[in-house]
Amino acid sequence: MSQILRFKYIHIFSIIYVLSLFTSCNKDTSISLDHIDEDIAVTFIDSFSVNTSTYQLNYLPSLGTKAVLVGKVQTPDLGTIKSSSYLKVLLDSYTDNIPQDAIFDSVNVVLRPNAARYYFGDTTQTQTLKIHKVTQEIVTTNLLTAIDSYNAPVYVTGPTVFSNQKFNYDTSALGTVTFKPNVNSIDSINIKLNDNFGRDIFDKINSNDFNVSNANAFLTYLKGIAIVPDDNNTVVLGLKDTVQININYSYVGPNGFRVTGKKVMSSALSNFSYNNIEYNRAGTSFAALNQNNRELSFSQTDNKAYIQSGTGIATKIKIPALSEFMSATNISINKAELIIETESLNYGNNAAPSGLMLMVTNKNGLPINYIPTPMSTTIQQASYMSGTDIVGNGKYVFNLIDYIKNINTNRYIDTDLLISTIAPSIFSTVNTAKIANENGKPKIKLNIVYTKFK
């Protein structure tokens, strides 16, 4: 039979089968016309069940994310999140350009909201931030050259500081500020620091002390500052990574009037800052989830599933029937979509992740690759689609045709998928998605449209 005639037969019967397009079909179907003994192709759609669990990512890079993330927030299902920021600072210049008769006045830190004016949590309450002097050198770890480099997740690409790392700082704060985080209108947060701290640097500059003669010497003398939230805070704020410290002085000018000036220290180099993100899930369904116990089944978390940036919560999915289905030789895949529905969370201006990505894990649960955009090598990102009055849930949709077609090849055999937020927000925010629940099951489904030949 000619190819044109075959398409005519398919067109005749397409009206009959469109009524069954959104039902699962489990038996072979063949069609013949006028006793022509030839197999006819028919299109079906199947929905595959997806098994889920909650998975704890580890080794989350935090250095150079260009986000100073500071604050603490309490969430009902996931407990508390606390983020402190560590920054190395440098002088704007190492020449003594302070006038000879100048006197030290004060020292202060200036923090500014980032461009997105990011926040996660309750901004109606008063917040407190403290500045501490770091006493331990902030150093990077190169997991890729370590003896256990085979444990490095795909998102670790070089030397970094991980978000769970801490470095020592002086327990006595250099300065404290209490303020209302009016994120849409606030221009800056000004924190006055201890005079002795500023005067010491001022005097060293005036005396041409070796500790302020070059960048390396200065970083040995002042290893950095830490911005730490109070335990009673209710919001995590996103700040610019160009934090500025002003050493303020004054002197009498040529006209006899007092003139003010300042020597500036800043964290202008983004690879000099990182965020330490802590979590406490005690008393929640996720209390047992941690770096040592990294996977909990859906039933163990009271039939709840989340995805959260910063703390490394991902949702792991398995599709048990997929491998066997793709072993059939008489099917051709036309379309494959993974649909994830999420409930609305009201924690901030960008509480819902703007996008999600899929990581491929080996049989040990290690993320070894990403799901790419079909016909491409770029990481596929599913954008957030908000709910409507009719369908209240938001959703994310992935094109999985490449993964489906290669599920039984060396590329994907014996692998599972991890749903996480996209980079760089997975490292620089605490945005959270709660997967919707229906009849005690997560609303994650895989729809495959395929053509079947007898």
Quote the distance from N terminus to C terminus. Answer: 16 Å
Radius of gyration, taken over Cα atoms and rounded to an integer in Å? 29 Å
Give the overall form.
elongated
* Tally of structural domains: 2
Average pLDDT, all residues? 88
Question: How many β-strand stretches?
Answer: 28
Figure out the total of helices.
6
Poorly predicted ranges = 1-37
Topology:
Layout: H1 3-18, E1 42-48, E2 51-56, E3 68-75, E4 79-87, E5 90-91, E6 103-111, E7 119-121, E8 127-133, E9 175-179, E10 189-192, H2 195-206, H3 215-221, E11 225-229, E12 235-239, E13 244-252, E14 258-266, E15 273-280, E16 295-297, E17 306-308, E18 313-318, H4 322-326, E19 331-343, E20 355-361, E21 367-370, E22 382-383, E23 394-399, H5 401-405, E24 416-421, H6 425-428, E25 432-435, E26 437-438, E27 441-442, E28 444-452
Antiparallel strand pairs: 1-28, 2-16, 2-18, 3-4, 3-12, 4-11, 4-15, 5-14, 6-10, 6-13, 7-12, 8-9, 8-11, 13-14, 17-25, 18-24, 19-23, 19-25, 19-28, 20-21, 20-22, 20-24, 26-27
